[in-house]
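Researcher: Structure prediction, please.
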Amino acid sequence: MYRVPVLLALASLLLLGGGRPAPAQDPAMFLAGRTKDCPGCDLSGARLKRRDLTGADLAGANLTGASFHRALLRGANLSGTNLTNANLNKTSLIQANFSNAEMKGAMLFEAEAGGANFSGTDLSQALMGSIHLARGRLERANLTEADLEAAQLDDTDFAAATLDSANLHQVRMLRANLRGASAESTDFTEANMREANLQAARLRLSIFFLADLGVADLSAADFTRCVLRSANLGSTNQAGTIFVGALMPDNSVHP
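Model: Predicted structure follows.
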C-alpha cells in the first residue's frame, strides 16, 4: 500500500539531487580558468585581463576593483554584480547583462557593448568615453557625473535614467530614448541627437551648444536656462516645451 508514495519520494530525491544542497561555487577554480561560472563569488580585485568569459555566469559576484581589460564577456550574465571601480576598458560586452549592478567609478573606455543591458545599474562617475553602446538598455540607470564623451549610443534606451552633470560631449545618440530622463547641468555640446525622444525630460541648465536635435521630440521637456546657442532645433516637436531663460539658437534669451 506504500509502494506508490515511496516511488514518488525516491523520484523527488533524484530530481532534487538526493536532497543534498548544491555545491558551493569555487572561486579558485574560476580564477584558475577551469570554469567560466562563479555566481555569487567573492572575486574582488581579480585579474582577468584578456580572459574569454563569453556566456559566463557571474551574477551577484563581488568584482570590486577587478580588471577585465580586453576580456571577452559577450552574452555574459553579470546582473546584480558589484563592479565598483572595475576596469572593463576595451572589453567585448555585446549582449551582456549588467542589470541592477553596482558600477560606480567603473572604467568602460572603448568597450564594445552593443545591445548590453544596464537597466537599473549604478554607473555614477563611470568612465565610458568612446563606448559603443548602440541599442543598449539603460532604463532607470544612474549615470550621474558619468563621462560618455564621443560615445556611440544610437537607438539606446535611457528612459527615466539619471544623467545629471554627465559629460555627453560629441556623443552620437540618433533615435535614443530619453523620455522622462533627468539630465540637468549636463554637457551635450556637439551631440548628434537627431530623432531622439526627449519627451518630459528634465534638462535644466544643460549645454546644447552646436548640438543637432533635428526632428527630435521635445514635447513637455524642460530646457530652463539651457544653452542652445547654434543648436539645430529644426522640425522638432515643441508642444509644451519649457525654454524659460534659455539661450536660444539665434543667441536670444527666451523670456
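Model: The CA atoms of residues 105 and 126 lie 4 Å apart.
Researcher: Thanks, that helps.
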